[in-house]
Amino acid sequence: MRQVPNSLTIILSETLVRSHSSLSPQDSESDAMAVLQRKPTGLLVSSFNTVTINPTPFVSFNIKLPSSTHSAILASGSFTASGINSAELAQKFLLPSGPKKSHVIKACTFTTEEEGPWLKSGQGGVWWMRCNWVQEKSVQVGDHAIMVGEVISAGKYDKTDERKSLFYLNGAYRECVTCDPGRTDKDPSTDEKENRGS
């Protein structure tokens, strides 16, 4: 499988965590809710794929268990998938779970009141898909969970080169660059001559 190119996708979700603020026995339930904060979590996958397009778009990917991102998706019921073109960004999401990774993820993502989290503009995201997790179509196989999501919205990130995407092949990151459409009209024999002469 090392010789099979795999596209790389960042999966983001979020969980509610209690802040460090202390609560006294006199604090009300509303006060307790006030100290809950939304914490983004995420990971890099090479298994993201389209399941169906019509009539309803579904996507899938695999997560090795245990996983904090898996737990967050189960709790929130949603996630954001992002195609990327930055090896530096990919490496950040390969860090082991812990304070350092949490700090890195927080630095390159943002969360809206309605939806989130998302990659910040200019971080290396190319496209995004906001998805609802479909529990009845997801399954655990061995130590992995096959996650299925229904795409509810999709788009492109700002400030990115959408002609480039990142994939993994033979133990290394590779860039896939969209070719100039004009070259499709070029005589293939010309390329052969150029290659032989180089």
Strand percentage: 35-45%
Helix content: 10-25%
Profile the largest sheet. Answer: 8 strands, antiparallel
As residue ranges, the low-confidence spans are: 184-198
List the helices and strands in order.
EEHEEEHEHHEEEEEEEH
CA-based shape: globular
Report the oligomer. single chain
Q: Give Rg in angstroms.
A: 20 Å
Structural class: alpha+beta
Q: What's the count of strands?
A: 13
What is the gist of this entry?
The protein is α+β, with helices and mostly antiparallel strands. It contains 5 helices and 13 strands.
Structure keywords:
8-stranded antiparallel β-sheet; alpha+beta; 5 helices; globular; disordered C terminus; 41% strand; 13 strands
Task: Describe the overall structure.
The model is unreliable at 184-198 (pLDDT under 50). The longest helix has 10 residues, at 188-197. With 198 residues, the protein is α+β, with helices and mostly antiparallel strands. It contains five helices and 13 strands. 20% of the residues lie in helices and 41% in strands. Strands 2, 3, 4, 5, 6, 9, 10 and 11 form an eight-stranded antiparallel beta sheet that branches. Strands 1-12-13 form a three-stranded antiparallel beta sheet, with no helix packed on it.
Secondary structure topology:
Layout: E1 6-7, E2 9-18, H1 29-34, E3 36-45, E4 49-52, E5 58-64, H2 68-76, E6 78-84, H3 87-92, H4 99-107, E7 109-110, E8 118-119, E9 125-133, E10 139-141, E11 144-156, E12 164-169, E13 172-177, H5 188-197
Antiparallel strand pairs: 1-12, 2-3, 2-6, 4-5, 5-11, 6-9, 7-8, 9-11, 10-11, 12-13
